[in-house]
Design brief:
By secondary structure, the protein is α/β, with parallel strands linked by helices. It has 7 helices and 4 strands; from the N terminus they run ααβαβααβαβα. The protein has a 4-stranded parallel β-sheet, sandwiched between helices. Helix 2 packs across helix 3 (69-79). It comes from Thermosporothrix hazakensis. Residues 10-168 form the BD-FAE-like domain. InterPro entries: AB_hydrolase_fold, BD-FAE-like_dom, GDXG_lipolytic_enzyme. It holds the Pfam family BD-FAE.
């Protein structure tokens, strides 16, 4: 689930500013449903962490950036970290899927809004337990990694209230975050001057970018 303007161009832009980037193409609806997308994303984090030292990277500086539905997946990875499995035969599974930072650009967050999206993700109407599981704002803790949020107040598809709720949960948990909330146009605007420089500033503050 990757729009052309939200994948490689963004990765290339970040790379130009000193970040090592990867583009994840994960399995998704309608062919695949939960938990497959989440498992793919968690596996990607474990894969990079496993290879980090041999690639000259810091295994404790792994982040994820997602747009729209990919933003929801990123929020799920951020709020449902899985520890490494010490008895796993696969060395990649020895690594945790914990994110050290995450960025959400016009993300889907709460199942109480846009329920049709979650029906697509699950392939059926979610029950109460799944509604809670998929509402990432309910699972932010003090251990959740620092976040960068972008949402347009004029987004008529994925309402800004999604990011508002997530930001409020980060605030309550004492998690550091930056939130770009403004009239940035409709949904799906991609990389813009309105938020790109602030994102780079956020990465610099983390010590990740030049």
């Amino acid at each position: 689930m990757l729009a052309d303007h939200e994948g490689a161009p963004v990765a290339q832009w970040l790379a130009q500013h000193g970040l090592t980037t990867f583009v994840l193409r994960y399995r998704h609806a309608p062919a695949y449903h939960h938990p497959i997308p989440l498992q793919d994303a968690q596996r990607a984090v474990r894969f990079v962490r496993h290879h980090a030292l041999s690639w000259g990277l810091d295994p404790e500086r792994i982040g994820m950036l997602g747009f729209s539905a990919g933003g929801h997946l990123t929020s799920m990875v951020a709020t449902h970290p899985e520890p490494g499995q010490p008895k796993a035969a696969d060395p990649i599974e020895l690594q945790s899927s914990h994110l050290n930072a995450h960025a959400l650009i016009y993300p889907v967050i709460s199942t109480t809004m846009n329920p049709e999206i979650f029906e697509t993700l699950l392939g059926r109407t979610p029950d109460a337990k799944q509604m809670d599981l998929f509402s990432s704002e309910n699972h932010v803790t003090a251990q959740t990694s620092p976040a960068f949020l972008v949402h347009s107040t004029e987004d008529g598809y994925i309402l800004v209230a999604h990011s508002d709720r997530y930001a409020a949960s980060l605030q309550r948990a004492g998690v550091s975050y930056t939130y770009v909330r403004d009239n940035l146009g409709g949904h799906g605007f991609g990389l813009q001057e309105s938020w790109g420089p602030q994102c780079l500033q956020w990465f610099r503050a983390l010590g990740w970018s030049r």
